[in-house]
Amino acid sequence: MTGLTDLGLIAIRDGVAKGEFTAVEVAQAFNAAVADAQEALNAFIVTTPEAALSAAAKVDADRSAGKELGKLAGVPIGMKDLFATKGVQTSAASKILEGFTPQYESTVSQKLWDAGAGMLGKLNLDQFAMGSSNESSAFGPAISPWRRKGDTAALTAGGSSGGSSAAVAARLCPAATGTDTGGSIRQPAAFTGISGIKPTYGRCSRWGIVAFASSLDQAGPMAHDVADCALMLEAMAGFDPKDATSLDMPVPDWSALLNADLKVKKVGIPREYRIEGLNADVAKAWDDGIAWLKDAGAEVVDISLPHSKYALATYYIIAPAEASSNLARYDGVRYGLRDLPDGANLQDMYAATRAAGFGAEVKRRILIGTYVLSAGFYDAYYTQAQKVRTLISRDFEEAFKQCDVILAPTAPTPAFALGEKSNPLDLYLGDVFSVPASLAGLPAMSVPAGLSSDGLPLGLQIIGRPFDEQGVLNAGLAIEQRAQFSAKPEKWW
Amino acid sequence: MSSYRIQGATGEWEVVIGLEVHAQVTSNAKLFSGSATAFGAEPNSQVSLVDAAMPGMLPVPNMECIRQAVRTGMAIEAAINKWSRFDRKNYFYADLPQGYQISQLYHPLVGEGSLTIEADEKAGIPEPKVIGIERIHVEQDAGKLMHDQHPTMSYVDLNRSGVALMEIVSRPDMRSPAEAGAYLSKLRQIVRYVGSCDGNMDQGSMRADVNVSVRRPGDEFGTRTETKNVNSVRFVMAVVESEAKRQVALIEDGGKVVQETRLYDPDKNETRSMRSKEDAHDYRYFPDPDLLPLVLDDAFLEECRASLPELPDAKRARYVDGLGLSDYNATVLTTDVDTARWFEALLAATASAQNKPEADVAKQAANWLLSEFFGALNKLGKDLSTSPISPEGAAELLALVGNGTISGSIAKQVLEKMLETGDAAGVIVEREGLKQNSDTGAIEAVIAEILTKNADKVEQYRGGKEALFGFFVGQTMKAMQGKANPQIINELLKKALAG
């Protein structure tokens, strides 16, 4: 059955505009899908059906009144619960912010509402966006709608934007926001057979997004296809004077300028990413991708990113260092959880509040970050990591003298089962392909490439030059057109 | 060289002092948020989402605060760093919402500079002394804890949270309480001239961390202690003295000075060890990833330089060399920028009212301001900022003296009436009939009468007792009820006495 919930973002926007269906009908359909799946998939932390309906009703009224409609008019979306939403709980999937209701709206979410989108709810994520499997959420992990062939084991929808990927893949929303610090948009997109793009650092304002690692955090869209991502990114991006790291550049018409013809383009294949023992399905998908881009007219060149092997170590110093400081504000003094034992002094209150309010992974990263910034260790860890970060950026600068975009796998494996990776290091290793582009602040996207031998989606990653989201989207579109990825998870929930 | 020494049981000790002065930047808004910064507002009424460190809030530098710090740096002839960066200083305290203070450790905005303290023989400063300034950086202030609002809990007021401070760090170049006091006064004078800080130490706009160590004269530096948040020049001097004495006594008793943070208790006039904010002092400084490096261009620096006012040293020199004022008067007039401004307004108005160059009326204006006006205001419990008389009003009075309409002694009466009634000098002179009599015929008649009455004294005068001249002037003036032009009296008397 092809219903409204099978439609993508542009199809819904156009259908509403043409009057094929009303925005309210769309919101109702998705609200029902969300409610139906909530228990099984746990994709949402909070659902906001009334918000979706009222936004839709306004679009319908505007349309009746003949008013000009926004870019995303009539499209209900899911909002990762890292974006502050006025009057709606913003928890970052943590106990310490459970019940916290901002009096302000993040810049990115406000831009989406201004473009005519409506909110279906706040999506699950790894706690404070720290994790690659959604298992660090204080509200339990989102469950992937995908299952291995002949198996009912619950799989991860990826992380940290796992609620977003699960919801889009399960058709609970046509698109969702994500944030990406070391791969948190791209890896969940790859795990669930959808598309997602992390734009150049600074494209989307960080104002109102609960901070994890400020120099890496970047918002982006997650949707069914490249064109939907391009259009939604246009609505999300733009200079914001409230974010000192925001890029003061115009937002291009990415969706209008989409072009899958890659003649005269060069695609770089980083030899260091051919790691030993690379999953055979992933390796095959990568080879398919190379063939598709050649078919689209591109020349394929071998490139080297020699410092890639240090990227994970670098990332797991810089991100926790920034996080340890960014999360110091959750202290029980002004908002959120406060644990004040009898007779407690200030230090006792901090200790009790933070012990009760932060999960194990968050505590681990605060400890790592505090350690690497400590006197006596700072130079050996943090300063060294910053130097390597510069070298990694230089690797990319050199590579982009020889090619226009880089093609690599998004993740080294397909989705794994929840509980399968109990050692945090195993989880960290899964970020190996996504972290370098984050450290260099480059635009990077994941698009579906096919299915693994046991029937799980695989993603391919395209990395571009700074500000060249267009090049990334175009290469993504070329792959999308040739991969013909049409697999959907079979509904079991 | 300062000869200040502490006499210990075992000999003489020299004290070494460095000051870290926190000066609140004059700006309507905080360093990284748009919140207001007025003193004395209701608790938590000047707090933005950024100041309260709500989730997802970001700092954006307020360029007015940067501009003020740069101008201050220029006023102490310091190197301005066109590339500087903000760092986070991490520690937990309830008055610090972010859990870190945004400051500048590694790359401060302003580098090496200096200022000169004046010679003051009485205070043991025999000649002017240059005090080095290591750096000025900008940083956020913290909020304030209130412990007296509830029996078991403390309250937090975040009005100050995020307010911009300049931290001005001196070299350990001072050697006596007097030098430390003079340095702080001079620094306060400069920031008030520049307009980068109001210098109100009693409101906490300016406060000093006082670093003190002692050594045998000429030895290596000793271990220093840092006494925090000292909020007056007098207290800074007291801290130096008491802390140096404490250290000397400690060392002479066989103890050792520990490097620590101390607090000053003005009631007991002693410092005591302060508990640290964290058990281990590890602030985990690192570059603030929410902020890009601060890069200043030439146009910005040029604007900062162009907007600098004449500074106290230059102004004082000009008053002496250009206006012919005494060193003493020039120093008094330039000590406070408000006095200098008032004087210059008075000078301009006086010159214009009398149609003379400023240099010709400067002494008259300065003498009147310092010897007449300050005293009169003082009696009323007022100062220049609350003066009921404007510089223009005062200039009118001085012009009446200058053109001979009234005498200096009548001017005193007129000033009193002006302060009393608020009326203009000319109005009062007219109404009260205080105009000076310059009618030579009338004066000659009075003189003739007086000389006749005092023929004996005339004889003595003519016999060589010239000191009697003052007696004749006094008699004439008295007879004319003080309203005769003294210059004319002088002339006519001389002529008459010459016979």
TrEMBL record, chain A:
<keyword id="KW-0436">Ligase</keyword>
<dbReference type="GO" id="GO:0030956">
    <property type="term" value="C:glutamyl-tRNA(Gln) amidotransferase complex"/>
</dbReference>
<feature type="domain" description="Amidase">
    <location>
        <begin position="25"/>
        <end position="473"/>
    </location>
</feature>
<comment type="subunit">
    <text>Heterotrimer of A, B and C subunits.</text>
</comment>
<comment type="similarity">
    <text>Belongs to the amidase family. GatA subfamily.</text>
</comment>
<dbReference type="GO" id="GO:0006412">
    <property type="term" value="P:translation"/>
</dbReference>
<feature type="active site" description="Acyl-ester intermediate">
    <location>
        <position position="184"/>
    </location>
</feature>
<keyword id="KW-0648">Protein biosynthesis</keyword>
<keyword id="KW-0808">Transferase</keyword>
<dbReference type="InterPro" id="IPR036928">
    <property type="entry name" value="AS_sf"/>
</dbReference>
<dbReference type="InterPro" id="IPR000120">
    <property type="entry name" value="Amidase"/>
</dbReference>
<dbReference type="InterPro" id="IPR020556">
    <property type="entry name" value="Amidase_CS"/>
</dbReference>
<comment type="function">
    <text>Allows the formation of correctly charged Gln-tRNA(Gln) through the transamidation of misacylated Glu-tRNA(Gln) in organisms which lack glutaminyl-tRNA synthetase. The reaction takes place in the presence of glutamine and ATP through an activated gamma-phospho-Glu-tRNA(Gln).</text>
</comment>
<dbReference type="GO" id="GO:0005524">
    <property type="term" value="F:ATP binding"/>
</dbReference>
<dbReference type="Pfam" id="PF01425">
    <property type="entry name" value="Amidase"/>
</dbReference>
<protein>
    <recommendedName>
        <fullName>Glutamyl-tRNA(Gln) amidotransferase subunit A</fullName>
        <ecNumber>6.3.5.7</ecNumber>
    </recommendedName>
</protein>
<feature type="active site" description="Charge relay system">
    <location>
        <position position="160"/>
    </location>
</feature>
<keyword id="KW-0547">Nucleotide-binding</keyword>
<keyword id="KW-0067">ATP-binding</keyword>
<dbReference type="GO" id="GO:0050567">
    <property type="term" value="F:glutaminyl-tRNA synthase (glutamine-hydrolyzing) activity"/>
</dbReference>
<feature type="active site" description="Charge relay system">
    <location>
        <position position="80"/>
    </location>
</feature>
<dbReference type="InterPro" id="IPR004412">
    <property type="entry name" value="GatA"/>
</dbReference>
TrEMBL record, chain B:
<dbReference type="Pfam" id="PF02637">
    <property type="entry name" value="GatB_Yqey"/>
</dbReference>
<dbReference type="InterPro" id="IPR023168">
    <property type="entry name" value="GatB_Yqey_C_2"/>
</dbReference>
<dbReference type="InterPro" id="IPR042114">
    <property type="entry name" value="GatB_C_1"/>
</dbReference>
<dbReference type="GO" id="GO:0070681">
    <property type="term" value="P:glutaminyl-tRNAGln biosynthesis via transamidation"/>
</dbReference>
<dbReference type="GO" id="GO:0016740">
    <property type="term" value="F:transferase activity"/>
</dbReference>
<keyword id="KW-0547">Nucleotide-binding</keyword>
<feature type="domain" description="Asn/Gln amidotransferase">
    <location>
        <begin position="341"/>
        <end position="497"/>
    </location>
</feature>
<dbReference type="InterPro" id="IPR006075">
    <property type="entry name" value="Asn/Gln-tRNA_Trfase_suB/E_cat"/>
</dbReference>
<dbReference type="InterPro" id="IPR017958">
    <property type="entry name" value="Gln-tRNA_amidoTrfase_suB_CS"/>
</dbReference>
<comment type="similarity">
    <text>Belongs to the GatB/GatE family. GatB subfamily.</text>
</comment>
<keyword id="KW-0808">Transferase</keyword>
<dbReference type="InterPro" id="IPR003789">
    <property type="entry name" value="Asn/Gln_tRNA_amidoTrase-B-like"/>
</dbReference>
<dbReference type="Pfam" id="PF02934">
    <property type="entry name" value="GatB_N"/>
</dbReference>
<protein>
    <recommendedName>
        <fullName>Aspartyl/glutamyl-tRNA(Asn/Gln) amidotransferase subunit B</fullName>
        <ecNumber>6.3.5.-</ecNumber>
    </recommendedName>
</protein>
<dbReference type="GO" id="GO:0050567">
    <property type="term" value="F:glutaminyl-tRNA synthase (glutamine-hydrolyzing) activity"/>
</dbReference>
<comment type="subunit">
    <text>Heterotrimer of A, B and C subunits.</text>
</comment>
<dbReference type="GO" id="GO:0006412">
    <property type="term" value="P:translation"/>
</dbReference>
<keyword id="KW-0067">ATP-binding</keyword>
<dbReference type="InterPro" id="IPR004413">
    <property type="entry name" value="GatB"/>
</dbReference>
<keyword id="KW-0436">Ligase</keyword>
<dbReference type="InterPro" id="IPR014746">
    <property type="entry name" value="Gln_synth/guanido_kin_cat_dom"/>
</dbReference>
<dbReference type="InterPro" id="IPR018027">
    <property type="entry name" value="Asn/Gln_amidotransferase"/>
</dbReference>
